[in-house]
Amino acid sequence: MTRPDRDRRFVARSDAQRAAVDGARLDAMVSRGAAASLPSSWEPDDLVELPSLRPITARECSHRGAQCLRRPAAEALLTMLAAMRADGVAGSIHSTFRSYDVQCMVFRNWAYDDGRGFCRAATGSALPGHSQHQLGTTLDLLSVAWKAQDRGLSADFGCSPAGRWIAAHAEAYGFVLPYPLHADYRERGESCGVAVHGAMDPRTGYAYEPWHLRYLSPALVRDFADARARSSAAGSAELTVDQWLRQRAGRVDDADLPVCDGCACGACSTLEGSDAAGSPCARDEMLVVDADGRPVIAQPAATVTILRATARRARERVVIEATLSVAPGTVTQTPVAQRDEVRFEEGEDSARWAPRERAAPRAFRDLVGAVRFAVSAEETGPQERFAHRIGITSGHAAAAFNGAVVYLPAPSGSRRVRLSIATRASRVRVALWADGRAISPSEIPVEER
Ligand SMILES: [Zn+2]
User: Fold this and answer.
1) Is residue 267 part of a domain?
2) CA dist 4 to 1, 104, 199, Å?
3) For residue 125, how far is its CA from the centre of ligand 1 (angstroms)?
4) Which of 49, 343, 372, 415 has the most Cβ atoms closer than 10 angstroms to its Cβ?
5) Per residue in 360-399, pLDDT tens?
């Protein structure tokens, strides 16, 4: 995976080789993030073959192409499959434990044999070490009927009888769906319908996978379900398993950026030092993280300067534009502009903003150490909130993460940011915003045309 392609290197060496996740834990955090990776040598030692429950080594399982899971997961699965059958749905196991080496092969098939290229493979498949299938607790489950139709892993499986059964009952057996359908992509309240096929969920880095099941244990699933219910009651978008595991580990952001893989990422994470040479991504697109996946943050207040800011009236709105000087290593966060401007409609600000049409608005809570550009059209005073805060980056790849609260790298050098707000104010105040406070605020008049 680290060998150079004709044009560019793929995957920084540190990201491929420094793996810290303990795969033996049922709650191991395995995701696309640079630090959320299993060592290549890690394999479960309590695998059993399905459906016999006969003990089998990881090596033998891979060699024979058998279907294997860790014993607690396998036993729970057999119980669940029996219950499915009793309800008239015959489940069909598609894929179970995959060793690091097998995942390498799967990825290579995507990347080379199918001619899809590394970048597409990195979107559709997990890099070796980053697959939950290596845990031995994860499987892809379809149904006999679905397979008979030769339909494979496609999102509308979620609306099939088996997909609906899994969504409704799997948790009772200790399984969760780590890659659920993001609320923004649901059609008219449907919990299975897919409006946007293949759209990446910023909370997980994966598209909707209604067949991908991970065993946590009934006790952990109960804790997760409680936390999810609390988060829905508090008005935030439904908590994913990955987000819950992050919260338990003391992480305050919603998701990891994917490991730097050399593709036109726009935003990625890496364990390589910021001064490391030969990284596969542009330096400015890399968020440098530590072994726990936390971003390495420079002194936030010292890294950005407002060089110039203007405000002008445009019908019922005010457009604020600023040129900033950004030091290398600056960390920012969502929301960011997809193209050139973040638009706040009436009643919207960073505590309530919808990242796309028909999406539910969400709060872009402060992430420690993240710097944003902020505007206030309110009365000056101690309660002044600088309520309109935007990240110091833009572009499609970075904006794909607007559906969650995520750290992003801020490209260094001279940057322009632009936002527009619905206000009649004749003066606004601009500032940088970090760690809950405005830095060097200044007032600018709104130019009337
Ligand atoms: Zn899977």
Assistant:
1) no
2) 8, 16, 29
3) 9
4) 372
5) 888 999 999 999 999 999 877 777 889 999 999 999 889 9
